[in-house]
Task: structure prediction
Amino acid sequence: MRNIAEIITENRVGFMHAKETISKYWDWRSQTYTNGTYGFQEEEKSVWKGELKPLLDHNRDLNVLDVGTGPGFMALILTEMGHKVTGIDISEGMIEKARSNATAMKLDIDFRKGDGESLPFENETFDLLVNRHLLWTLPHPKEAIEEWARVLKPHGRILAIDGAWFDTSPDATIRRGLSRAATLISEKRLPSYYSAFGKYYKPIKSELPLYSDSRPERICALFNEAGLSNVSFKYLRDVHKFQNSYGSLLYRISHSEPTFMVTGEKA
Result:
């Protein structure tokens, strides 16, 4: 029988492998990944700013950390809104793309490569921490949220945006299957990221607690367990409406549920 030390060591190796795999996948995706759903146009940015503005207490000059910044989607928007933003991502490829996007938009943002579950910042550094489409990728989501709270100032806020991307319910599974089949019929092939995603994520998805269960209620529970207060969520219906108005029928089939935002405050 294995002892506890062996099991802990094995788990640590597994999680390190998962993070390495995730980093490699997003390095590859960064080559073609676009900022925003349809090229980061002004209309899309305006919709997102409308969702964010009521939550920022009408303050300017907040010190903001964007965890899992990717190509800088949230960081760029919040900088345009007048805030000082730092972006961090585990993928070097995404960080390079984010820096390029900021340069093109003439925005001053501090982008750094780093682990969203182990942040290289002092306690009580930031007023606001945001992330978008990140929680489902994390091996330790509860510990990550606790780490995010650590770097927040008292009464600082976390905004976590996500969706039920890989919901295993029958309805969601059927919708994804229909979208996949329709794509095959109309385009005679699947986009390369379909097969690449499976290649990278299938071996590690069991190590990602929110991979197939990223419902807002589940994330709210994790926020509460991490000691945050005033925890709530809302569906981003204006964002969903915008995405559907520009998306194809195939997109609407596979993305029928709107993304949501979970919020919580540090005491």
